[in-house]
User: Which sequence fits this backbone?
């Protein structure tokens, strides 16, 4: 444990409010932090094989030291685990362990594990306690904040799930040291996103300090905490995504369509990379619609390129459908409302807004330019 | 349509509040009532083969007249439909119909259909609109009020689900004329329950007027509306079952154990019959604990016997486990909290209360008496 401070971000949701702790060495402290908030709790730890090999014994030791009996539930790694079959497996194992409504499901892993375990916690006995211990950058700054959980179906990603707020989130910044660089970089796309939504100063900080964020230390803790604060602010305004929360989808409408178009094949495109390309496209499309300056779009593209993220459709390896096919993927995206296309567009760096009724013809023309360009 | 008035019960849950309409001829009016509340909605109608044969065309005609396109999803009848497999089937079909978050899932059927369709509505796109059109007495007075949804697993009944409040409930009292008498009678057990919880005058009304409730007309509409009011009052006080709502489980702890012990075999015992026996046992156990008078227990037994409901364990056909086995079923029931046994007991007719930490030894001794007596 270093001398660095642990930062605490409060997600202000009334009686569903909770703390996000961000800092080094938190994995060892999971037991005591949970015991302080949920006395006499028993737990199931949902994780995947890769994360279990690295971190499970550290965590269960900490849980045991705090008197918390824990049943491990270890799943196959990867996006395919966000399925009805895996959901049913987790539900059955938690019930077989006779956990009660006041006990806890702990998610130890990245976004896949968090989304699946949170969904299970939300439906077992109509809602158990849920604790997130995110081990990827993406999960620390995005999926573990805000209570959205879910699985994928043949009809699309995250179309099935619940809102289930955690009781506590523990983001240990040191576990990110063991992440593959590509995965860290993909998560960084969501960090940059918070700057682009409504924090221009944070985006400028990232342009200047991204190397320090990548290498660790206090800049990394700051960037993660600032990202959590940004997301927590939006979530507190709109817990159930009926309004402002849609801003968090900056880059996601194009991004989800690209993920679907690559059949969620992580060797071609992972979620954060899709968001990176999606954010660049959202800015370029905004510039094309004369909503923002082409210089802003260029600045976003330059930063994504500098950190090594894809930002053009042509950066994605392999075949992609044509413009019409991409538009179909966009239309099936869950944010479609009454058949109209909704996008997050922008008036400049940190000036994003929800654009409803975007003409499909404009999107199609833009996609044609991008795919032929 | 007769000249009888439609009664409206408001479930006061703030922005999740909704109306329950009770009266004759409502099935034909489903379209206009939904259109008045959810303009431009599209719908999926979840139902079972038996109910579809009787009522589906009436309802879809009414929906079409109000401009609501509806996709029917017809499932096998019976408790086995409350499964992960059927849940996944409904979810897939609703998504295949490209329904959006603002569209509606309509449950047309009894408790099984309502619980399953409500669960699906609660998880598709993290929550769609949900409308209940209950066609059994049990569903009209119990399962369609209060937002509890769920499915069964090998570990027990209703252990998996969500709280998903409907936007509207339409209880057509005329559809009950086509119910088998045994099913109507089983639903009546839940009507009597509301009197026994906290409405002694209503119980006295039922003792005097149960024949008129069974034969239809204004007494039936009144009994159903009064039951919905009783349940709505409790639900408004405790939406998520952290306190008072447990009162609604009067008769259910014994009842669920009996259902589990008969392997949910409806030829032996249906839910309402389990509740009837459970209520009689809860009163007899309360008398044994000197909480209420034996006369009160006898009065409950006499009324259940008068309407033709089972009230003794020996009224259930076939083999049952011994007292120890029954206690195991009770311990796995979802209302177990931290290992202690919680029962709804009573100080007299309409004076039920939540008894926590009931000694398992007392329950065991009581069960031995009942099973040997």
Assistant:
């Amino acid at each position: 444990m270093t001398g660095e401070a642990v930062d605490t971000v409060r997600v202000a949701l009334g009686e569903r409010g909770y703390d996000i702790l961000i800092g080094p060495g938190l994995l060892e402290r999971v037991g005591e932090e949970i015991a302080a908030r949920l006395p006499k709790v028993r737990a199931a730890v949902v994780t995947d094989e890769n994360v279990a090999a690295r971190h499970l014994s550290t965590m269960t030791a900490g849980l045991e030291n705090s008197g918390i009996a824990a049943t491990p539930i270890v799943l196959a790694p990867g996006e395919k685990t966000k399925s009805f079959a895996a959901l049913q497996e987790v539900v059955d194992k938690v019930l077989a362990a006779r956990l009660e409504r006041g006990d806890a499901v702990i998610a130890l892993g990245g976004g896949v594990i968090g989304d699946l375990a949170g969904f299970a916690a939300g439906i077992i006995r109509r809602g158990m306690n849920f604790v997130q211990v995110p081990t990827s950058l993406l999960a620390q700054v995005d999926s573990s904040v805000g209570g959205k959980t879910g699985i994928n179906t043949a009809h699309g990603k995250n179309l099935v799930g619940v809102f289930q707020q955690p009781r506590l989130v523990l983001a240990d910044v040191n576990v990110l040291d063991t992440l593959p660089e590509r995965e860290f970089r993909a998560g960084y796309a969501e960090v940059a996103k918070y700057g682009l939504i409504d924090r221009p100063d944070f985006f400028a900080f990232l342009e200047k300090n991204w190397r320090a964020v990548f290498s660790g230390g206090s800049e990394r803790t700051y960037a993660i905490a600032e990202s959590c604060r940004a997301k927590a602010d939006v979530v507190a305004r709109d817990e159930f995504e009926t309004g402002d929360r849609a801003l968090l989808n900056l880059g996601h409408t194009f991004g989800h369509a690209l993920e679907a178009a690559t059949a969620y094949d992580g060797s071609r495109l992972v979620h954060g990379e899709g968001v990176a390309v999606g954010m660049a496209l959202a800015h370029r499309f905004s510039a094309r619609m004369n909503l923002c300056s082409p210089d802003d779009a260029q600045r976003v593209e330059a930063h994504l390129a500098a950190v090594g993220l894809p930002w053009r459709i042509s950066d994605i390896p392999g075949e992609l459908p044509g413009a019409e096919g991409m538009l179909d993927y966009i239309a099936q995206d869950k944010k479609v409302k009454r058949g109209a296309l909704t996008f997050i567009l922008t008036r400049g760096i940190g000036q994003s807004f929800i654009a409803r009724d975007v003409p499909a013809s404009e999107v199609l023309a833009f996609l044609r330019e991008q795919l032929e360009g």
In short: The longest strand of chain A covers residues 352-358. Chain A has two domains: 7-178, 192-372. DSSP finds 13 helices and eleven strands in chain A. Residues 218-237 of chain A form the longest helix (20 residues).
